Amino acid sequence: MKNPKLLIISVAITVGIAVLLSSVYVVNETQQVVITQFGEPVGQPITTPGLHFKVPFTQDANYFDKRFLEWDGSPNQIPTKDKRFIWVDSYARWRISDPLLFFQRLRDERGAQSRLDDILDGETRNAIARNDLVEVVRTSNRDPATIPVESEETNAALEKIQLGRQALTRQILATTAPRVKEFGIELMDFQFKRINYVDQVQNDVFQRMIAERKRVAERYRSEGAGEAARISGERERDLQRIQSEAYRTAQETRGKADAQATRIYAEANNRDAAFYAFTKSMETYESAVDAKTILILTTNGDLLKYLERPR
Amino acid sequence: MTIPGILPFVIGEQSDSIQLNLRRYFGTRAFAQADPSTPFFMEVIFMDHMDHEDRFGELAKFRIPDMSGFRPPPGSARMILTVVVALVVAALLWGSFYQIEPEEVGLVLRFGRHVRTTEPGLRLKIPLVEGVVKVPVQRQLKQELGFRTVQAGIRSQFSEPGQYKDESIMLTGDLNVAVVEWIVQYRVSDPYRFLFKVRGLEDTFRSLNEAVMRGVVGDRTVTEVLTVGRQEIETTAQQRLQELCDQYETGITVAQVVLQDVNPPDAVKPSWDEVNQAQQQRDRLINEARAEYNKVIPRSSGEAQQTILSAEGYALDRVNRSQGDASRFKALEEAYRLAPEVTRQRIYLETMQRVLPRVGGKVFLDQNAKGLLPLLPLNALGGAIAATPAAKTSGGSN
User: Fold this and answer.
1) Within the 30-89 window of chain A, which residues sit less than 8 Å (CB to CB) from chain B?
2) pLDDT the model gives residue B2
3) Stated pTM of the model
C-alpha cells in the first residue's frame, strides 16, 4: 500500500470487526450458554434466545442444548425374579436443567451419557431382578376380552400383577432422578422400550404356545363332533316325535268320527230297530247275491207261497 | 481477499452444510479466510426434520461469479466498487423475501430467537438478521414400525419380513410372543415445540411408539392381540401416545395408529393355522349334521300333516255317510210307519224282484219235499258250494 493513511484505516476496521465479532454471540431457541472467563464460569447461564454480548477475547460462550435429549440404553440380558432371562432395552429423556452445574460436573454430553448409563442400567437391572416377568410385561390387571373356547383355555395363564410396567418405570424414575439431579440433569421419563426373551427361553415359549394351540385345536374338533352328535340325536327325536304325534292325532280324529257315526246310526236306528233290521237285510240280500249264487227256496215263504196255492 | 460488505455473512459455525453452501455462494477464495471458531450471526437455515429438502438450493441459484481470476484494470477502482455495492444491495433484497407454501408455516428467527410465525404467501423479513424455518404443519406424516415401505406405488414393495423383527416382536400379557407391525400417522400441531423442544424428534417418536405399543400389547392375551382386540389396541395406543407426546412437548398430534400385519411368531404359525383348521372342521361337522337334520325333518313334518289330513278326510267321510244313512233311514221309517205291514211286504217283494234275476241258480222246493238236497247236481247249475275254497276265490273275483 502506498498510502499509509489507508493502511491505518484498514487495520482499524479489521480490529474493530474482530472486537465486535468476539463480543457478540447468538443463542438459539435450542441452546443455553454458560459464559466463562479464563475457564471460570461468570454470572448466570443464558437461557433466553437472541443476540447477547460478552467481554471480547477474555470470555468464552459454552453452548449446551436446552431441548429434551435422548438416552438409549443398550439391550441388557437380565434374569427376572422368576428366573427367566430377558433382553431389556430401555430409553429415557432428560435435559440439562442446570447448565452451570452440568458444565462443572460433567463438562459435556458424552460425560452425561456415560453417567446416565451407569445409573439407569444399574437401576433397571435391580428393578427387573426384583420382580417377576409379568410385572414388567403387564400394565394393569385388566380382564382380557372373552373369546369363547380360547379364553377358557388361556385365562388360567394370566397371573395377577402387583405393580406393573408403568409403576416399575415410575419407580426407576423416582430413584434415579434425585441421583442425576446433582449433575444438573433433569430426568423426564424412563420407559422400557423392548422386552424380549433370550433365544433359548424363546424356543421354550414357542413350544408352549404350540402345545397350547394344539389343545385349543383339539377342543374345537371335539366340540364339533359333540355338536354334530347332538344335532343328529335331535334329528332322531324330532322325527319320532313328529311321526308319533301325527299318528296320535290321526287316530284321535278317526276315533271321534267313528264314535260320532255310531251315535248317529244308533240314534236313527233306535226309532224302529225291527224295521232297521228288515231294511238292512233287504239291502244286504241285494248286494250279497250274484250270478254264481244258488238259491234254494221253498214255497213256504211269502214270495213263493202262491206257487202252490193262489190263496 | 476480503470483499467489503460481505464479511458479516460468511462466518461459519458448527454446521458443515452451511459452510459448504456458502462456499458455493461466495466462491472458494472468498471463504477460505473465515475462522470456523468465530460465532456467527447470519441467516441460519435449519433443515426440516422429516423432509430434508435442500434449502440451500435456492441460495445456490443466486451465484456471484467467481472473481478469483479477476484482475482489475488500472483506474477502474470506482467501477469495481459500484459493481460490488450493486451486488450487495441485490443480495440484501434477495434476502428480504421468502415464500411459504400452502401446507407450511414459517417460523421467523431473529438472531436465533423465535419472533413470529407466518402463514403461507410471500413474506418479508429483515435480511441478515432474521432467518426462516418452514414446517409442514398441514402435511400428514407417517412412521412405519416393524416394516418399511421400500417403494410406494400401486403395488407397494415392502421390506423383507423379519428384517425389522426387533421392532415388531413383543411379549403379550400371557407371556406369549406376537409379531406386531403398525403405522402411525401424525401432524405437526405446534411447530415451535416441534422444532425447538426435543432433539432427535423422529427417533424419540419412534421409541415412544415402541414403548406404548408394547405396553398396550403387554396388557392383552396373545389371542386377543391376534383376533378380536385390534381396534381396541389401536385406540388405546393412540391415546397413550398422545399423552406422552404432550408430556414430551413434541408438538405432534397423533392422527391415528393403524395395526398392519399382526402375526404369531413364525415357529408357532403352523399351530395357529391348525386351530383355524380345527375351527373350520368343527363348523363343517356341525353344518353336515344340520344338513342331515334339514333333509329329514321338514319332510317328515309334511308327511305327518298328510297322515293327519287323511284321518280328517276319513272322519268327514264317516260322519257324512252316517248322517246320510241316518237321514235316509229316518225318512223311510217315517213313511213306513203310516202303513207298516204293506210297506214291509212291498219292500220285500221288490227286493226279491231285483235280486232273483241275478241269482245264477234257483231251486224252488215244495215245502213238503224232504231229503232232496243231496241229489241236486249243484256243480252243473254253474254255482259253487259256499264251503269250497274254489267257490270263495271265484266269488271274490266277481
Assistant:
1) 30-31, 48-51, 61, 65-70, 72
2) 36
3) 0.67
